[in-house]
Amino acid sequence: MSREVEDLHRRLLRARDAIGRGYARPLDVALHGLVLNTDDVRGLHEDLRARGFTDFTQEPTEHFYGTDMTLRDPSGNEVRILQQGKS
After folding, report:
1. What percent of the chain has pLDDT over 70?
2. Which domains does the chain have, with CATH numbers?
3. For residues 68 and 22, what is the distance between their CA atoms, to the nearest angstrom?
4. Model-level pTM greater than 0.85?
5. Which of 22, 42, 43, 81 has a CA-to-CA distance to 3 between 20 and 30 Å?
6. Residue 75: which of 2, 24, 16, 4 has the closest Cα?
C-alpha cells in the first residue's frame, strides 16, 4: 500500500473516531463529509483503482479551485479529496 493511501486510511479512522466521541462533527454547510488534501489527486485515484477500490462517487474533476474526487469509505461516509490549484 502506498504511503499516501496509508495516510488517507489513518486520517479516515481518526476522523471517524473523533466524530463518534463527540469531539468533532460534520459541517452543516454546503460541504459535508470529510475533505482531505493531496498533491496528486489523479495519481491517488489511479493507485486506489489499481488496488481494487471502486466506490468513487465522482471521478477527478477540474474546478476553479483545483481538482477533486469523491469516494465512499467502507462505512458509506463521503470523502472528498482535493488537490488545490496553484496560487
Report:
1. 76
2. 3-84 (3.30.720.110)
3. 28
4. no
5. 22
6. 16
